[in-house]
Write a structure and sequence with these properties.
The chain folds into 3 domains: 226 residues, FAD/NAD(P)-binding domain, CATH 3.50.50; 111 residues, FAD/NAD(P)-binding domain; 114 residues, FAD/NAD-linked reductase, C-terminal dimerisation domain (Enolase-like, domain 1, 2-Layer Sandwich), CATH 3.30.390. Helices cover 31% and strands 25% of the residues. The chain contains 13 helices and 21 strands. It is globular, with a radius of gyration of 24 Å. The termini are far apart. It is found in: Cytoplasm. This is Dihydrolipoyl dehydrogenase. Belongs to the class-I pyridine nucleotide-disulfide oxidoreductase family.
């Protein structure tokens, strides 16, 4: 017998589970369908982010950073460490525990908010009779069909493969395999100098791998403010990451125990490298596999994303889509905001997502975070602006932490002083960027931040000083 719901969410990642919770909070009978499984074939909601993305990568980044500090930075603090070693299986087990805690937390939140959870793959069966919504098939341990008046699609994305080079997760690794390497590879290759490539490359470099990053684009982190990107590249190279830009990947041959990559460098010279493991991180593609969208006439765009308007409405009545499977940045927090907004729109409210104030973070060391426009974007758009920077080497808290790399950069309108962009490379950039997001959401000026009292000593003082520097009146540099 069919089960009827006001809202059915397909996908339990950041966009999906948050949409389901918000819909339930608003009084709708809500179901969420998710097929992720843990090692025991039990439910593991949270999507790519929780299972093989944001959460496990941050766990490994923390573990590897602790190891690097113990081997290098502790001595400066008078802490002696003899016989330092790392237990990779233990590190991975801790990562798995962190993931499970998040999985279980989502299941608890479903129960708390009275969201009905179905463990399986959700797909369209047909439009319900009498225009009463849509029938959704759940293919799990036991197949069943449910009906939803409103459908929210939050099916996420998958890693992009190189042509004719499928992931085997043993030698040719996606983000999934990169998070589960069971021993430190002597030589690790990374194709793609994006977020995943740099984060995973950093993890395994810290614990002893020789890491080579091959990037097709001629500029490092082209989406990042150029000044910040150049500073970050300099710091990564100093740490030991070998970064090659402007390369053209040729033949890739997987042997029994290694991978050979042939490529042309930025000077046109033929090169060959042999790696124990190869991480391919060249972007992600929308996941619509098995959704059976043709059964109801759901429209996809030319790149395979579910086509939506500004409000996340698809071409079908009462069918919505959020997160990685639609246009816009593939970020967990963007998906969450869209999920909340859609639930509120279904309730007749005015859900809000401001794409101009979505923060970006790369959790390397130093961290890189930004919001708003880059300097090169402002130049291309012909916007008159003022810039102010402040280095962490002049910040007392950064000196005490022993991490003075990087800077904070403010970009403000030359006439109105409104903040147009803030860019940070340095310690705890992921936390510091929130002040800039709040300021920009309220259309603050650089002068507003410059006039706010910041605790001393704190890293946030670098934010204040960069705002002061917009008017060329920094106090501590």
């Amino acid at each position: 017998m069919s089960k009827n719901f006001d809202v059915v969410v397909i996908g339990g990642g950041p966009g999906g589970y948050i949409a389901a919770i918000r819909a339930a909070q608003l009084g709708f009978s809500t179901a969420c369908i998710d097929e992720w499984k843990n090692a025991k074939n039990g439910p593991a909601p949270g999507g790519t982010c929780t299972n093989v993305g944001c959460i496990p990568s941050k766990a490994l980044l923390q573990s590897s950073e602790n190891f690097e500090h113990a081997g290098h930075a502790f001595a400066d603090h008078g802490i002696k460490v003899d016989g330092l070693s790392i237990d990779i299986p233990k590190m991975l087990a801790r990562k798995d525990t962190v993931v499970k805690q998040n999985n279980d937390g989502i299941l608890y939140l479903f129960k708390k908010n009275k969201v009905t959870f179905f463990h399986g793959r959700g797909s369209f069966a047909k439009a319900a009779d009498g225009g009463a919504g849509y029938e959704i098939k759940v293919a799990g341990a036991a197949e069943e069909t449910i009906t939803g008046k409103h459908i929210i699609l939050a099916t996420g994305s998958n890693p992009r493969q190189l042509p004719n080079l499928p992931f085997d997760e043993k030698l040719i690794l996606s983000n999934t395999g990169a998070l589960a390497i069971d021993a430190v590879p002597k030589k690790l290759g990374v194709i793609g100098a994006g977020v995943i490539g740099l984060e995973m490359g950093s993890v395994w470099r810290r614990v002893g791998a020789e890491v080579t990053v091959l990037e097709a684009l001629p500029a490092f982190l082209g989406a990042v403010d150029e000044q910040i990107a150049k500073e970050a590249q300099k710091l990564f190279v100093k740490q030991g990451l070998a970064i090659h830009l402007g390369v053209k990947i040729g033949a890739i041959t997987a042997g029994k125990k290694d991978v050979t990559v042939e490529y042309t460098d930025d000077k046109g010279n033929a090169q060959k490298a042999v790696f124990d493991k190869l991480i391919v991180s060249i972007g992600r593609v929308p996941n619509t596999t098995g959704l059976n969208h043709d059964a109801v006439g759901l429209k996809l765009d030319e790149r395979g994303f579910i086509a939506v308007d500004h409000d996340c409405k698809t071409n079908l009545p009462n069918v919505w889509a959020v997160g990685d499977v639609v246009r816009g940045p593939m970020l967990a927090h963007k998906a969450e905001e869209e999920g909340v907004a859609v639930a509120e729109r279904i309730a007749g409210q005015h859900g809000h997502v401001n794409f101009n104030t979505i923060p970006w973070v790369i959790y390397t060391s130093p961290e890189i975070a930004w919001v708003g426009k880059t300097e090169q974007q402002l130049k291309a758009e012909g916007v008159a602006y003022k810039a102010g920077t402040f280095p962490f080497m002049a910040n007392g808290r950064a000196r005490a932490l022993g991490d003075t790399s990087g800077m904070v950069k403010f970009l403000a309108d030359a006439k109105t002083d409104e903040i147009l962009g803030v860019h940070i490379v340095g310690p705890m950039a992921s936390e510091l960027i929130s002040e800039a997001v709040v300021a920009m959401e309220f259309r603050a000026s650089a002068e507003d931040i410059a006039r706010i009292c910041h605790a001393h000593p704190s890293l946030s003082e670098a934010t204040k000083e960069a705002a002061l520097a917009v008017d060329k009146r920094s106090l501590n540099f």
